[in-house]
Every structure is written in C-alpha cells, then in structure tokens.
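During the reporting period, our protein records have gained a structure token line. A sample record is set out beneath this paragraph:
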Amino acid sequence: MAKATPELINGLRETAQRLSSGAKYEWGHMGSCNCGNLAQHLTDLSRDEIHNYAMRKYGDWTEQAFDYCDKSGMTLDFVISTMIQSGLELEDIKHLENLSDRDVLRRMPLEERNLKHNHRDDVVKYMLCWADLLEEQLLSKISIKSIKESPKKVETEKPVVLV
C-alpha cells in the first residue's frame, strides 16, 4: 500500500475533484485514464505528454509498472518515478488502473464495491475512499506528544512617528 503522504492524499482528492468537474477521461488513453489523470496532477505534465511518453513502450499502466526501471531513461519510467516519490508503490498503479485494492474496497459499503474500472464516477469514488484511508494512516502516526509547540512570537507595537 502507498505511503501516506500529504502530496499523494491531496493528489487523489484534487484528481477526483477534477474528474467530477468534467476533466477529460478516457480509460483507453494513457494520459487521461485512472493513472493518467493522477499522473497529470503529480507530474504537472499534460495528458498528451503522458500518453506520448507511454506510447514509446508497450502495454497499459499495469504492464508498464511491471516493466518499470528507474534507470532505464525511458520517459514513462520518469513519470512512474515521480509518482513513486509522491508515495505510490508499483502495485498501487496496477490497483488504481483496475480499482482493485482490497483495503480501499473494504472501506466501501458492500453494495458499492462492484466498481467498473473504466467508469468515471467509480474512479472518483475509489480515489476519494483511498485518500480517506491514507489520511487516517497519516493521522494515526501523529500524537500530541510528537508535536512540539513553537515559542509564541510576542508582537510589540511599533512606535508612531509624527511628521
């Protein structure tokens, strides 16, 4: 499971919001599918740039994640590296493309777990549920004792200068 980072949690939520608001979604297009939309947010690349990078190799996101090599110099491997730096694991890329992570699905009501990997609304639901799960994991690592209170800055009034 992905490492719970603010960058990834925000990325999932903002991507879900963009999709809900009508962002381009095409499951068969490497730059505007489930992973492609998240990659746009995490890399600041356009859907067309991501798609063009992906077409330099074979396969969908699942196959490309399987063949990923951080030292290959291939442009989509750079995209995947950036996604991994935000907290994703290679398995998460496969699960996101297919909406299949069991931990995410278990959080959904039983009647809502039959998601279709290529339906925008299901992708949005999955991303939001995943973001909630990651946020809970992140917050569970924080305790009041671990938060150091910074010294309060005392504000002083500046003298008024009469001219």
Observations:
- The first helix runs from residue 6 to 20.
- Residues 99 and 117 are 6 Å apart (CA to CA).
- The mean pLDDT is 85.
